[in-house]
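I keep forgetting this: the sequence line spells out the residues, with the fold written below as integer tokens. I include a record here:
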Amino acid sequence: MKILVLALSGIGDAVMFTPALAKLKKHFNDAQIDALVMFKGTRDIYSRLPYISNIHYYDFVNSNPFAALSYILKHRKQYDISINVYPSNRREYNLINFFVGAPKRAAIKYLHKDFINLGFLNNVTISENDTLHNVEENVRLIEKLTGEEIKDIPPLYLSLNDEEESFARNYLKQIGISGKDLVIGFHPGCAVFKNHINRRWAPGKFVELGKKLISENNAKILLFGGEDEEKLKSEIVNEIRHENAIAVKTGNLLQSIGVMKRCNIFTTNDSALMHIASALKLNVVAIIGPTNINFIRPWKTEHRIAALNLECAPCFYYSPKPLTCTRSDIKYKCIVELGVDLVYSKVKEFLV
């Protein structure tokens, strides 16, 4: 049997599929399980998974539609099962699943805009349940495929090789991090597509939080983020104006993950690095605005949620529709008015 996992929607979503992937491999032990990805970070993380045989990487974002279709058709009718990782409710993902041509095409049937996004092209489906975590939705889809109830859902899975572990040790030594230091990671970024930049906590608040943690707890603050977030990290470090604040710069995501492992606490927006921190079993402080906490809370790791829990939240649901705010008083109040003292109090719970 050959199975293709379509892990296209994002790095965090791909990481949250790893418990389902482990159960899929356990059931179809002799199957060849391949993955189709379009982000380098997903490719790198999946290259370390023991469940994956082959990874097909293609940059759909920067490819023209005809070239993309030609690439997909190269894999047509090569698989018995294809699976759209949750959430993947854009019509493009459903078309890719359809054109791959597997007899069984698994996906979630979404509560919002499923038909208009061609969800009917999938033929093994379960209805979305917005009280469940993304991990649980993915596992339910595997149960549908296998007919087997899954009671014990494992943690997120992530692995590094010796080279990446060695890089992290040397890097931490180079920037002056010792074994006795209190190290707190920050991720001030998140995805920006579909207006998701409005999920970000203000950079100035990360600055204030960093200053407070340094002055009151003598913490070392490590700023993490992707290539497109270098300016954001540097601005925060420059505003903190203290040698204990350091913007982490590595060659790739896996090296950054190696450095992240040293963090005693990881304070982050709703982002892929939040889920990577969960996979590393770090103590996570998650700063959540419009997103449904049921969907994305850190999975099976110690965590605290910093959120205002407004009456209008959560307002974000899985749909191609860009993130919007309908409030007439303060737009994105859920994140704009989320204060430093609240987040600091959540961090302090791990310092007791």
Remarks:
- The first strand starts at residue 2 and ends at 7.
